[in-house]
Amino acid sequence: MMLSCHSATELIEKKQRGELTSGEKMKLYFHTMLCSACSRYAKQSRFLEQIFKNKTEAATGAEVDDQAKALEKKILLRLDPEQE
Amino acid sequence: MKNDLVKTELSDWVVCYTKDLFAWALEKTSDRQLAEDLVQETFLAAAQSNSSFRGDSHPKTWLTGILKNKIAAHYRETLRKNITIPLAPDQLSTFFSDSGNWMKNAAPQPWQGEPEHLTDIPAFNQVLHDCIEHLPTTMNACIRLKFLDEKKGEQVCQELGLTATNYWQLIHRAKIHLRNCLEKNWFLAP
Fold first, then answer.
1. How far apart are CA A11 and CA A28, in angstroms?
2. Phi, psi (5° rounding) for residue B76?
3. DSSP E strand stretches across chain B
4. List of chain B residues whose C-beta atoms are within 8 Å of the C-beta of residue A7
5. Residue B144, SS3?
6. What pLDDT does residue A83 have?
7. Residues of A with CB below 8 A from B99's CB?
8. DSSP code of residue B90
9. How far apart are CA B119 and CA B115, in angstroms?
10. Which ranges of chain A have pLDDT less than 70?
11. Beta partners for B102?
12. What's the pTM value of the predicted model, to 2 decimals?
């Protein structure tokens, strides 16, 4: 009857997709109430989703600019080979 | 005549948007060569399908849409090539005991600090990047697809012949690995 931590983490992932049945909700609720590792997992898993959604690590810097400039030329040439 | 006009317009777009598109692709893939190739392909595809641009969206939005599809297609292809069905047996034995409980050194520990602002810290982004790159190929592709906000697992599954359960299992595994890597190399790093 008691969930294993492995199954609990699966349910935690499922919960984030909004797909838990009421029975699963109940099982997960009791499991995380008693299991601090899994309740941490739940919090940290949400945090990971947040990162996936908001990751806006700005890819900037001179190096990126240079590569983008070179790329621009390459593309223009491929689009219109006569330009050369 | 009309062709020339279209050509000029597209060239303008190349000049205006290459940098932003490249930076965006780099952010989603962390792979310079791949980002470069896909941005190139985006413009080539745009040149061929210019008639499908109706001007009811901003050209940059339209181009970003093409690029996004290309990145997603790339990772779906990676998955398709590397996945075996049924899925390889659970690779979580380093995290869970036979009875399914956390192994002693794998149980999640408290994380200090404000997670909201972590991605503003370059050193954290580096650890995140390294952790993602160290994931097995299929898990890596899953996480990359998540970066593209590919919520619709169904589409990925259909193309790969995966069941939804298989797909979510892969994401579950990927997140277990990634969480652990971040914990060991950032939150609890000496």
1. 7
2. -65, -40
3. none
4. 100
5. helix
6. 55
7. 4
8. P
9. 8
10. 1, 54-61, 81-84
11. B96
12. 0.80
Nearest CB to A7 within list B27, B40, B100:
B100
Say how many residues make up chain A: 84
**Interfacial B residues in 113-152 facing A (CB < 8 Å):** 115-116, 118-119, 125, 128, 143, 146-147, 149
Interface predicted TM-score (ipTM): 0.80
Residues 6+ apart with CB under 8 A from A16: A45, A46, A49
Can you tell me whether residue B53 is helix, strand or coil? coil
CB B156 within 8 A of CB B79: yes
CA dihedral (B31, B32, B38, B42) positive or negative:
positive
Q: Check residue A59 and give its pLDDT.
A: 55
Interchain CB contact of B14 with A (< 8 Å)? yes
pLDDT of residue B1: 41
Q: What is the pLDDT of residue B112?
A: 81
Query: Closest partner residue to A57 among B22, B99, B125, by Cβ?
Result: B125
Longest alpha-carbon distance in chain A:
73
Mean pLDDT per 10-residue section of chain B, whose length is 190 residues: 62 92 90 94 87 76 92 88 72 88 94 78 88 89 79 68 81 93 91
Using the beta-carbon criterion (under 8 Å), do B115 and A50 form an inter-chain contact?
Answer: yes
Q: Which of residues 47-76 of B touch A (CB under 8 A)?
A: 47
